[in-house]
Design brief:
Length: about 300
C-alpha cells in the first residue's frame, strides 16, 4: 500500500537566527541529505525537499516505519549540533498509508495531507502514524506502535486513531531486555501545568499525578463538569501520558491547533505547549482551562 512520510526539522527558525543564513543552510542541507539516504536504504523515494524537511513515498508501510526509526536513531547516535554550543538537531515525522495521486513525479491526495498533519502534531523526536498503517503491519511490528487515542486532524471531519512509534525505550515492567538494549537513555523532560494561580511541575520520577474535583487530587479543579478523579498523568515510554477517567471527557489542544483531541476513557501524549480542558470544550462558559508545557529539564 502506498505510504507517505513527512519529516520536518524542529525549530528551524531558531537555528537560522542563531547560526545565520549561510551556516544554517549548510546544516539543513546536510540534515535533509542524511534523511534522504535513510529513505533510499529502506526502499523509499524522496518526492521533494521541503526547505527544512522532506516528503517521501514508499510502496510498503513497514519500510516507511523502518526508515523513520532509522532517521531518529541516527540523529540520536550521531547528533548534528546547531552550532558549537547549540542543541542537537531533532526531527518530527508523520506517516500515513492510502491512495496517492502521482503527477509528474509529485504526489497529492488525502494521504499526503494526513502525513503532513501528523508531522505537525508530532513532538521533537517523535513519529506519529494512524490505524491505516498499524492495521497492515505484522504483529511484531505492531508491538512498536502505541495508541495515543483519537485525534481530530486539521481538515478532517472525523477523528483519526493515532499511534506513536516507540523507537525509544519504555519503562514498562514487561519490557524485554532485548528491546531495552536497542536504545539509548531517555531525555530528561519536565512538564508544567498551570491552572489559575496554581502551578504543578512534574518530572520522570514524580509518579502518578491526578486531576479532578477532589481536594485530594494533585491538581484540584473545582468545577461541576469535572469528575472527582477526572484524569491522570504518568511518565512512560519517554513521554508524559494524559489519561481520561471521566464520563464527560477531556479536550486536549496541542500548540496552536484549533481541533481538539477528545479523550473519553482514552489517552494521549502531551508534547510541546498547549492546553487541556476537563469536562468541556475550551469555548464553553468559564471553561476550566489547564495550560501545559513540556521542556527539557
Amino acid at each position: 500500500m502506498p505510504t507517505v512520510i513527512f519529516a520536518d526539522l524542529v525549530g528551524s527558525t531558531g537555528i537560522y537566527e542563531r547560526l545565520g543564513d549561510e551556516a544554517a543552510s549548510r546544516l539543513v542541507t546536510q540534515f535533509t541529505a542524511r534523511m534522504g539516504v535513510a529513505v533510499e536504504q529502506h526502499n523509499g523515494r524522496v518526492v521533494k525537499l521541503l526547505g527544512d524537511g522532506l516528503f517521501a513515498l514508499f510502496a510498503e508501510p513497514a519500510d516507511a516505519v523502518s526508515a523513520s526509526i532509522a532517521i531518529q536513531q541516527q540523529l540520536r547516535d550521531e547528533p548534528m549540533l546547531a552550532g558549537a554550543q547549540g542543541p542537537p538537531v531533532q526531527v518530527q515525522i508523520g506517516i500515513e498509508s492510502g491512495d496517492v495521486v502521482e503527477i509528474d513525479g509529485d504526489c497529492f491526495g488525502d494521504t499526503v495531507n494526513t502525513a503532513a498533519r501528523l508531522a505537525d502534531l508530532a513532538g521533537a523526536g517523535q513519529v506519529l502514524t494512524t490505524e491505516n498503517v498499524w492495521s497492515v503491519l505484522i504483529a511484531m511490528q505492531q508491538s512498536f506502535l502505541r495508541s495515543i487515542g483519537p485525534m481530530y486532524l486539521r481538515g478532517k471531519a472525523e477523528a483519526s486513531q493515532v499511534y506513536r512509534v516507540e523507537w525509544q525505550p519504555s519503562h514498562s515492567d514487561d519490557e524485554t531486555m532485548v528491546r531495552r538494549s536497542m536504545f539509548a537513555a531517555l531525555p530528561d523532560l519536565r512538564l508544567e501545568l498551570s491552572f489559575g494561580a496554581r502551578r504543578v511541575r512534574i518530572g520522570a520520577n514524580s509518579g502518578k499525578i491526578t486531576i479532578g474535583r477532589s481536594r485530594e487530587a494533585s491538581l484540584t479543579v473545582d468545577d461541576p463538569r469535572v469528575s472527582r478523579v477526572h484524569a491522570s498523568l504518568v511518565w512512560g515510554g519517554g513521554q508524559f501520558i494524559l489519561s481520561d477517567a471521566s464520563t464527560s471527557g477531556t479536550w486536549v489542544y496541542h500548540g496552536n491547533l484549533d481541533e481538539a483531541v477528545v479523550l473519553r476513557r482514552t489517552e494521549c501524549i502531551l508534547a510541546g505547549n498547549g492546553i487541556f480542558v476537563p469536562g468541556c470544550q475550551r469555548g464553553a462558559d468559564d471553561a476550566p482551562v489547564i495550560a501545559f508545557s513540556v521542556s527539557e529539564g
